[in-house]
From TrEMBL:
<keyword id="KW-0067">ATP-binding</keyword>
<protein>
    <recommendedName>
        <fullName>Dihydrofolate synthetase</fullName>
        <ecNumber>6.3.2.12</ecNumber>
    </recommendedName>
</protein>
<dbReference type="GO" id="GO:0005524">
    <property type="term" value="F:ATP binding"/>
</dbReference>
<dbReference type="GO" id="GO:0004326">
    <property type="term" value="F:tetrahydrofolylpolyglutamate synthase activity"/>
</dbReference>
<dbReference type="GO" id="GO:0046872">
    <property type="term" value="F:metal ion binding"/>
</dbReference>
<dbReference type="InterPro" id="IPR001645">
    <property type="entry name" value="Folylpolyglutamate_synth"/>
</dbReference>
<dbReference type="GO" id="GO:0006730">
    <property type="term" value="P:one-carbon metabolic process"/>
</dbReference>
<keyword id="KW-0479">Metal-binding</keyword>
<dbReference type="InterPro" id="IPR036565">
    <property type="entry name" value="Mur-like_cat_sf"/>
</dbReference>
<keyword id="KW-0436">Ligase</keyword>
<keyword id="KW-0460">Magnesium</keyword>
<dbReference type="InterPro" id="IPR036615">
    <property type="entry name" value="Mur_ligase_C_dom_sf"/>
</dbReference>
<dbReference type="GO" id="GO:0005829">
    <property type="term" value="C:cytosol"/>
</dbReference>
<dbReference type="GO" id="GO:0008841">
    <property type="term" value="F:dihydrofolate synthase activity"/>
</dbReference>
<keyword id="KW-0554">One-carbon metabolism</keyword>
<keyword id="KW-0547">Nucleotide-binding</keyword>
<dbReference type="GO" id="GO:0005739">
    <property type="term" value="C:mitochondrion"/>
</dbReference>
């Protein structure tokens, strides 16, 4: 169950003050990539760094890393048991995400990290991670329509909730490619607090971070990747000015090429899971904004001379199906709709029924073929592989679908 608020997580952590400083990141899209950039560069620079993102990818504990390595399962379970016992003893009644957040923060204490890079779970103002009180820099990424039932029905309302992570005396970095409504809302909050801010974008990178521009060309980055990198490097400079004023953040830029963020524009080979040697594009796009980015990428890089694309898709229940799949599926494409399995630690997350999803996609004009696969995912992958016949094949629509695919592949090795 999703239950926003800070009182329960505050009670969980009241006897264990956090011994590390934080970089706090909120937004709709880009949080995970920016977190990955920051934790990698900080670790490379010799800063002992922890990272907490959500949701997990394959195992429930892989959302927590120390020095770029996933926390050991044994330590995760040890600390989690302590947190759960405290919750029961004190009668707090914390939610699953609050328990996970407290566990991550306790692990950072235990591992004596210097900096924790922390991604907001939902929203910002009332998200469990907003219990942080020793923040070096706050980051606001790209904001779109997101969890309207909890955050508001307009971009302005949602942006106001996400800007709730901003704190007096803490500088912030904002993705300036956001819509005007979002930028104005966040700017108003910044002015209320009287804090320093950097509004960054690839268009202004030459003036703000001149050393970064050559890496855009060298790494052949997509526009959204450039935006995320601008935010990450700007936040890194602000953090290092407080942590390591003698260190030149630009000296770490060559290591940007080493950052890997699975499930985002990831090319993957699924042999021996399916009989296909050609790579498949795997992407966790799951809202209208990220789907639009994926659609442009596929149209530019994957479709060869108008060749149709074969898709394997799934979606969480309650998603804007037309908004997501209308941005990526084109006339003539073939589609296999699937369902992801239970999500460990997140029982409230349920997949859209594959038949219902197929009906929604069929409403997109002139779709070539749509087949639905309820239950097991593997038949959908096998069918799509046969339909594609070595041509373009993309798996998208849900991070939980990405997780299931990677989990299936791991089980084959």
């Amino acid at each position: 169950m999703i239950e926003l608020g800070l009182s329960r997580v505050a009670s969980l952590l009241q006897q264990t003050p956090l011994s590390w400083k934080a970089i706090h990141i909120a937004g709709t899209n880009g949080k995970g990539s920016i977190s990955a950039y920051l934790s990698h560069l900080l670790s490379t620079g010799g800063v002992r760094c922890g990272r907490f993102t959500s949701p997990h990818l394959i195992d429930r504990w892989d959302c927590i890393t120390i020095g770029e390595k996933v926390v050991q399962e044994s330590l995760f379970r040890q600390i989690e048991d302590q947190v759960k016992l405290r919750d029961q003893t004190l009668g707090i009644g914390a939610s699953e995400f609050e328990l996970l957040t407290a566990t991550a923060f306790e692990i950072f204490n235990h591992e004596r990290v210097e900096v924790g890079v922390v991604e907001v779970g939902m929203g910002g103002r009332l998200d469990a991670t907003n219990i942080l009180n020793n923040v070096l820099v706050s980051v606001i990424t790209k904001i779109g329509m997101d969890h309207q039932a909890f955050l508001g029905s307009t971009l302005g309302e949602i942006a106001r909730e996400k800007a709730g992570i901003l704190k007096p005396g803490v500088p912030c970095v904002v993705d300036n490619t956001n819509s005007q409504e979002v930028v104005e809302t966040v700017r108003a909050r910044i002015q209320e607090l009287g804090i320093d801010s950097l509004f960054v974008s690839p268009a202004t990178v030459s003036a703000q971070v001149p050393a970064l521009e050559p890496y855009f060309q060298k790494l052949d980055l997509e526009p959204h990747q450039q935006e995320n990198m601008c935010c990450a490097v700007s936040a890194l400079r602000l953090a290092l000015s407080q942590l390591r004023p003698e260190m030149d953040a630009f000296s770490l830029l060559p290591y940007l090429a080493d950052v890997i963020w699975p499930g985002r524009l990831q090319n993957i080979v699924l042999q021996p899971l399916i009989d296909r040697a050609e790579p498949i594009l795997l992407d966790g796009a799951h809202n209208a904004q990220s789907a639009e980015v994926l659609g442009k990428y596929v149209d530019r890089k994957i479709r060869i001379q108008g060749q149709p694309v074969t898709w394997v898709v799934a979606a969480s229940s309650g998603k804007d199906l037309a908004g997501v799949f209308g941005s990526i599926i084109r006339p003539g494409d073939r589609v296999a709709t699937a369902e992801f399995g239970p999500v460990d630690g997140m029982p409230w997350v349920q997949p859209t029924n594959a038949n219902e999803l197929a009906s929604s996609i069929e409403a997109i004009q002139n779709i070539g073929q749509v087949q639905s696969f309820e239950g097991a995912l593997l038949p959908a992958l096998q069918c799509a592989s046969e339909e594609a016949q070595g041509g373009p094949l993309v798996i998208a629509g849900s991070l939980y679908l990405v997780s299931d695919v990677l989990r299936l592949l791991r089980a084959q090795k």
